[in-house]
Amino acid sequence: MQAVFLATNFTTMKKNVLLFGLWALFLSSCDNSIQPYLLNAPIRVSVYGYLDTARDTQFVRVTALERADGRGLYELGSVKTIVKSTGQTIVWRDSLISTTNGKKEHLFYAIFRAQAGESYTLKAADATGYEASAETTIPATPLVSVQSPARDAGLGWIQQIFIKTSKLPYRAKVWYHAAKDDTTPPSAFRFDYHTAGELNSGQWNVPIKLQNDFFRVADMLNINTGLYIYGISVEGVQLDAQWEQLLKKTNTPLQNITNGLGFWGSQNGYVVAWKIPPETLRQMGHIDRQ
């Protein structure tokens, strides 16, 4: 038996761990000492950021660079995004943040939910209207199929999932919500799966090692009796095509800004939750609280 799900975008707090981790990468990788020339053309701004389908508010860091004549920094102007399918223009607002080295930086933000499959163009201008730009297309949300649990000779109880995708996700995690008894609130336990399974003919086939993962959860809870299982879900993060290609190039900076420096891309985070059959849990010695 197989259940089919259209994965939904994730919005819960645990997803912000990835968000802040990636932002730390962007903020630490921005080099303000870069010379304002590229191919003999004046470069006036650098841009670092990405759209995220898991957020209601998007962020991008825009930095004014030094003038070639030594007269200080260029003055920042407007930042806007064009939605390709509708032509809608979204204007970003400016804010100042303090970085770890004590400097003040401009972090622009815009309140909108980026949509999977949509293309967006970012335009960051200086005060004279000189624009740096980049375009990103957010990866589509995949279709996910979940098979009924089955016994495997080597792995014990497993549950096979199939994700329709042409490439492996950047991140893939399985989350279990479990407790050691009926009076303790459930806790979330995460296991990395982005290197598991195999990609074949546009489908990622992943065996979720239920029995093995439950042994590990019980060990973390320091119990040798059955777990109280409250839920299971799989979470994936897919980067846009440009981002994927740049990460494959070693010793190559993230750079896709036209008439500027830096990188602007997108990611689609999705989650699928389902229920493990109570009888399967019983046979493994666990208690169903789904």
Characterization of the model:
The protein is mainly beta and 290 residues long. The chain folds into two domains: 11-139 and 240-267, Immunoglobulin-like, CATH 2.60.40; 140-238 and 271-288, Immunoglobulin-like (Sandwich). It has four helices and 22 strands. Strands 2, 5, 6, 9, 10, 16, 17, 20, 21 and 22 form a ten-stranded mixed beta sheet that branches. Strands 1, 13, 14, 15, 18 and 19 form a six-stranded antiparallel beta sheet that branches. Strands 8-7-11-12 form a four-stranded antiparallel beta sheet, with no helix packed on it. A hairpin with a 4-residue loop joins β5 and β6 (57-64). It starts with a strand and ends with a strand.
Task: Please provide a brief summary of the model.
The chain has two domains: 11-139 and 240-267, Sandwich (Immunoglobulin-like), CATH 2.60.40; 140-238 and 271-288, Immunoglobulin-like (Sandwich).
Key features of this structure:
22 strands, 290 residues, Immunoglobulin-like, 14% helix, 2 domains, mainly beta, six-stranded antiparallel beta sheet, single chain
CATH class of the largest domain: Mainly Beta
Number of domains: 2
Instruction: Tell me roughly what share of residues is in helical segments.
Output: 10-25%
Q: Indicate the overall shape.
A: elongated
Give the oligomeric state of the chains in this entry, treating copies of one chain as homo and distinct chains as hetero. single chain
Structural class: mainly beta
Largest sheet: 10 strands, mixed
Strand % is over 45%
Order of helices and strands: EEHEEEEEEEEEEEEEEEEEHEHEHE
Number of strands: 22
